[in-house]
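Students often ask why we bother predicting the structure of a whole assembly rather than each chain alone. The short answer is interfaces. A chain on its own may look different once its partners are present, and contacts between molecules only exist in the joint model. In this exercise we take two input lines together and write out one structure for the complete complex. Read the inputs first and try to guess which parts will touch.
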Amino acid sequence: MSPITTFHYLVVAAALFVLGVIGVLTRRNLVIVLMSLELILNAVNLNLVAFSRMWGNLHGQIFAIFITVTAAAEAAVGLGILIAFFRNKETMNADEIDLLKW
Amino acid sequence: MTTGMTPVATPFFFYMLSGLAIGGGLLVITRRNAVHSALALIVTLLAVAGLYLMLYAPFVAAVQIMLYAGGIMLLFLFVIMQVHTERASRDRRFNRMWPLGLAASSGLLALLVSAFAKGRALFPDRMLRLPESSNTQQIATLLYGEAGKMGPYTFAFEIASLLLLAAIIGAVIMTRRKI
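Now the answer. The structure tokens for the assembled complex follow.
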């Protein structure tokens, strides 16, 4: 088999990214939308670490660590918003959360 | 220091881990039950941690397993337990705008495929071999600095901890019943 190059990792990262985008845009349950968002962030992390190995320095890996930390903070805040909203309206559907519509 | 260890069966592990990651991603976006999606996402995160290990990044792999698969996914599972998704698991899976979302995602996929097809020659055929044993030390030098000086990422590190503090305070305040 051909050796595994940077390009293979980029293809995997792009596939995960597109799967995450499909999940964010099409799912109804908001918790699953947030989980697809985590998929997107992981795809970007994989991209960064693959490039970090290609160039031979560690800046990509440190960027990936910071993205992981930011994803943790964002998941906490997003889920807090979700819970606070669920207390008001008892629904998890993206279709029914339309309080700001005219 | 590591000697020149030749990796064993590298294509097998790569295809297995990336198949697990992409299969887990497919399960995340198609399952009706939110708990099934969360478990599939844990599988994806662990497979991506394995891919990080193959990329000679053991510290990032450990951070991924501890923070992502062990922290964020636990948070998701607790919220799923609180939010009573069994009624939502009997509804329709995809929202009203799903054809538009699917069309936009296909546009993105076409863009990425065309970018990869055109730019495939840019990437080298072999990958470097980084030493594994000093990865954590080098990351620590970049993050914390050395011998009394600030490293290149020390300031960003402190700001990241402030970000986490703000997120914790925000999450606690938002979920109180009486503010």
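Check your guess against this: Chain B is about 65% helix and 0% strand.
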